[in-house]
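Explain this fold:

***
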Amino acid sequence: MLGYVFVGIAFGLLVQRSGLGFIWAALISLLVYAGSMQFVMVSFLPGGFGLFEIALITLLVNMRHMVYGLTFIEKFKNMNPLKKFYSIFSLTDETYALLCSARIPKDIPSRDFYLAVALLDQSYWIAGTVIGALFGTLIPFDSTGIEFTMTALFAVICTEQWLTFPTRIPAFIGAGCALACLLAFGPSNMMLPAMVAIIAVISFARPALERVLLRREPGKCS
């Protein structure tokens, strides 16, 4: 809640600073709900970009969500269609990390737990967005660099995964591939090559990783 509310406030402030009203901020967080891509959208909307262009860029930037979805195919299978659709739609980086690391209480069906976490996360995000957009004019400070709050939230999630995951090999693989692509392609073009490289290396190392992961408690993501 603390992470999402404050990052949502940062996003709402950026929307307000760009000249868009709080209704736009709320609708983007309700219907797009694309995390870091929403920060990018703030510069797109006033700049004359078409909806198709924005949708295409959002798809490319958030293509990693497809990988998240693959690990939850079985877990979402028995949900009713409406709950299943929303659970897929709301599977953001933060929600995915929580669902992978949280321990589900024994007396609660896993599908209800997944849905509750997703609903709460988006509720926090929308609440923060609206607060930031509504009260942005009342907060007299320089908002330069406020988008770093998203990076800070990812750092917190990464730390949580580092402390709870049974092996740190995937973290080293991710960091190594990201660094290599940063050096090879530069900061503006590294994202997609890094994602492809990480998936390729982890797929190659999957048998060794599974031997480690099978020793952990059941019910978490592989």
